[in-house]
Amino acid sequence: MQAFTSLTGLVAPLDRVNVDTDQIIPKQFLKTIKRTGLREGLFYDWRRQKDGSPDPHFFLNQPRYQEATILLTRDNFGCGSSREHAPWALLDQGFRCVIAPSFADIFYNNCFQNGILPVVLKADEVQALMTEALAAPGYSLTVDLGRQTVTRATGDGYRFDIDPFRKDCLYRGLDSIGLTLQHEPAIAAYEARRKTEAPWLFADLRP
Fold first, then answer.
1. How many alpha carbons lie under 13 Å from residue 59 in its C-beta half-sphere?
2. Were both Cys, which of 10, 106, 139, 164 would link to 68 (CB 3.0–4.6 Å)?
């Protein structure tokens, strides 16, 4: 998993509350277990008009947001089903950070497992950033995980809280598998010992 330390990036504002995972990545895109190629399904229903043509008003269809790496949105982002394809699709689009007043719990946890930093700020702080991002083309922020800060180009900004364990894992790029592999020598030693203590457990019983 790619580590997250500090990111200065273009901000894309999604001014909607209760964005559920079926809107983030609709069910027809869940047939794959690959983490790539999902950007085409990201916000699929919102990106297109009834005739199937791109909706020019949706932010992902606007040139000014094509290189955005920070998604700014509203309350309860990622609610609905627990599909891990949701953070995969966001990551495939290029988003490494999502800022909102609140997140659905499972989506929040999945972000950390996939190298995305979900930042919780106060509603009035998000409102201030949203107003600025909508008004100013090329609006960018710096998100520093070590300092736990979101900083404007002017130098002022906000501080966010984060669980120390999650912070450390994301900062070092460790998902659950990575954490387990840190103990690989101990695991290998245990398996070698068990083969000696209980060899019948490892016998090939195929006819």
1. 21
2. 10
